[in-house]
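Supplementary Methods S3. Input chains for the assembly prediction are listed below.
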Amino acid sequence: MRKRWLAGALPVVSLVVATACAPVQSGPAQSSGDETTGQVRVWLFDEVNRAPKEKVVADAVAEFQGKHPGVTVDVQYIQVATRAERFKAAFSDPASAPDVAEFGNTDLSGFVAAGGLADISNPALNWADVHDMLPAALDATKVDTKVYAIPWYIGVRALYFRTDVFTELGVQPPSTLDEIAPLARRIRAAHPDLLGISVGGKYTYGALPFVWGEGGEIATSLNGKFSAAIDSPQARAGVARYTELLRDDICPPAQCAGNGGDASVEAFRAGKAAMTIGGDFNRKSVEASSVKGKYAVVPLPGKAAGTIAPAFGGGNLLGLLAGTKHRTLAFEFVQLLAGKQYQRKMFDAMGNLPTYQGLQRELAESEPALQPFTATLASGARFVPNTPAWAKIDSQAVIPTMLQEIASGAKDVDTATKSAADAMNAAFGS
Amino acid sequence: MSTATRRARARSGEGRTALAYLAPALLVLGALLAYPVYQLVVISFYDYGQEQVSGGAPLEFLGLGNYTTLFSGSRFWAVLAQTVGFAAVCVAGTLLAGAALAVLATRVRPWARTCLFLAALGAWATPAVAGSTVWLFLFDANLGLVNNVLGLDGFSWTYGKWTAFGLVAAEVVWCSFPFAMITLYAGIKAIPGEVLEAAALDGASTRRIATSVLLPLLRPVLAVVTIQSVIWDFKVFTQIYVMTNGGGIAGRNLTLNVYAYQQAFAASEYGLGAAIGVVTTLVLLAITVVYLRALRRSGEEL
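Predicted structure tokens for the full assembly:
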């Protein structure tokens, strides 16, 4: 009986072993063909208030379809929070993948390493308009000098502060990075119900300008090989400057250590903070909050008076997926949507900052509120290390863990930056 | 034909029939259980990231590489110890609350019992994410009901390591005690009244009846409830993920499952993630086997 059972089971087991002696792999996506008719599929990010975006995109689709008879454009809006899973699935199964997709510039290198994006160096560099774009924005679309996407809009952060509180106390906005902590402490001492400055232990892009402003780097690269530099003396000084803000007399850790960028700005919107670091993309929501008319924005100051701390140049890109069957059509649609005309329309609809330098200057003149952001961009935005390892470092929360360890007193600056550097080097090495 | 061969043939015929009857169940088990576990083990031997899945990079066989990476990190051991401690507290809490309320349910009037059961079913039926979020609202530092009642305005329950673990453990017990309560209630109700009556006639005290009659009779049910709770609480994910915002300040509230998700799946290191999955499975198997053997040694056939 027992033997018979075994005899029955053996073929099944050996069959299983034979069919799957290694994990499955889908073949590298083949860019198969360049059809000039059919359906171009597009993935764009869903937004909290999507209607204006949808309208601009619908206009672009109508214009595109009018120009190309026999071509339809199908636009789908995907959730930002679950985009990683959606893109992973699309890369593994090219048949279900779109032709064009919107993604964050920090996603790019991971997507390229996964073999998911098409190299568009040729058409992109031959497109005259691309050379009017902010160089930092364009750099974020390249991996090893090859271009994989077109910048669609850019996001940059600056210092928001409460004009009513500053006037009442007779203080000026900080003119150097070093002045922020004493100023914030002074405000909280006078107004214990206010956070001196609302920042967070998970607010990586709020902390990075402090690191860069002190002359530090996250990582340095030599011949394409990255190594962590977050434990260099300059970077440590920047980390110390930032985490000094996560103290009970400025932004109590119990309240702030768990906050990311959104939660940090939310406290400012709710009127519970005298300052915060927020993006141009937060301006509309702050305008619609209780502090409307009681705040102003200045660039985050650098180490020396009169300088601006380098900001993280975040932003979204439009790229072609490797498996697209409509290369030319898809790129033409990207050109339309990321062209000057539609970037301008997207600014009017969503407040997205265009990536064209000329357009930025024009907008800053007509809308002074944009000036701190364009000035920050003009003084030089910075980017996270352009390597697929960054996606891993980001999802393993290396920098938030470092900031939180210091804020909660679990580790001092030297130890925490050292272990963050070790974690980064492990990711760079693999 | 001798009787012996006929009997043997009849037996083998029986075996074939039995196998035929079992085949559908075996197929389902094989497809749904054995094959995924097999794949998990295989993947854990490879460097298998998103690049490899989508064919952007070749597969690399690492042997036990993922396991050595895992075991050499001090973080893994800290998280494992934390997970075991957290699960132990949750299991103890679930069993105590479940048993106490099950006994209570057998003693109170029907309307009170109905209320108790309705409340328990409510907790049981609440989806984990919704339950966790409601608890977060209740314990919110500034606006929460609990802080208002206790006068602890501004106290953050989720900041400190132990208060955060305590809060999550309380939520886990809250959503898992109904299973223990209802199963044990059914177990108590299934004990024949004559047995208890006989014990009482023999002059046994209530305490004596509980320890010498009720508990031994309930042991099989208790074993099932305990093993279920151990498995659930060891694998707890949603409550930690939602209530401590992905593992607490600087990851000090991480448990094994959330750690696996963060380090491996969010970072697309499926090989490493599979290795953590295999370790989790082995730990759970070990706990279950040890527990079952202990039960059997104490004379209970399951």
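The two ends of chain B are 42 Å apart (CA to CA). The CA atoms of residues 54 and 168 of chain B lie 38 Å apart.
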